[in-house]
Amino acid sequence: MIRLFGQPQSGWIDLKTNYQTQGEFLYRLCHSKAAVKTVTLVPGETTHFFIKALSETFELDELKLREFYEERTPIKEGYFIPESYNIPIGIKEEYLIYILLEFAKSKHQELAEKLFGSYNESQWFRYLRIASVIQKEAANKEEMPLVASVIFNRLKKNMRLQMDGTLNYGIYSHQRVTPYRIRHDKTPYNTYKYRGIPPLPVCVVSSDAIIAAIKPSKTEYLYFFKNKKGTHDFTRYYSTHLKNIGNGKK
Predict the structure, then answer these.
(1) pLDDT, tens digit (0-9, with 9 covering 90-100), for 1-56
(2) What is the distance between the alpha carbons of residues 13 and 23, in angstroms, rounded to a whole number?
(3) Closest by alpha carbon to 54, among 89, 13, 11?
(4) What are phi and psi of 236, to 5 degrees?
(5) What is the sign of the dihedral through the CA atoms of 241, 150, 131 and 192?
(6) CA–CA separation, 52 vs 234, rounded Å?
(7) Would you call 85 helix, strand, or coil by DSSP?
(8) Whole-angstrom Cα distance, residue 2 to residue 91?
(9) Over the stretch 217-245, which tens digit does the pLDDT of each residue have?
(10) Parallel, antiparallel, or unpaired for β 83-88 and 232-235?
């Protein structure tokens, strides 16, 4: 009977229903689609938590996932693409990391070629580092080019970025940045202590954040502060920035 329908598939498949005739079962054994689960990676999340989500969703070995990722990724953070992934149930750790990294590679190259006409990996990774700060700091898509302008304006003046979002790296992705963290974090992610952008992206980024990093708004802004509406007030002047802080605390 099976030979009439073809070859039974390997792995997990979705038979759609629990009750069927023998003939229906044998047919679906050969022709049903793979059973999948969906996992979503949102912009601004870190690879640490995405790998943890993969492990929990697909009941995979988290340590193996991390080992395979670190062996194969060209950059330790910010390489995965924010997306909803439909992953076959029963997939192995090594192959899952392989297909996610290959997908990311194709998407990075595609966007780089669209924007620059070619893909220069070292140049692209620098933009990912800047884009990750934008991703953490901007309240929405519209603010991204403005946040980017502040970053570049401060870099030109050799000012520290002094942005909380850079301290939401890795395992600290979901933690509130406190004065204690600012004083005691001695990593190069602490832009209150160290000049320049962090040595690696602090999170995965959207294409909007990357485009903002490449094409920032032309402004003289040096400061921004979150207002009561949840967006940011931008200014060139420190005195105005202090007023914005005072208004935000009232």
Answers:
(1) 666 666 776 666 666 777 777 777 776 667 667 778 999 999 999 999 999 999 99
(2) 17
(3) 89
(4) -90, -25
(5) negative
(6) 36
(7) strand
(8) 25
(9) 999 999 999 999 999 999 999 999 999 88
(10) unpaired
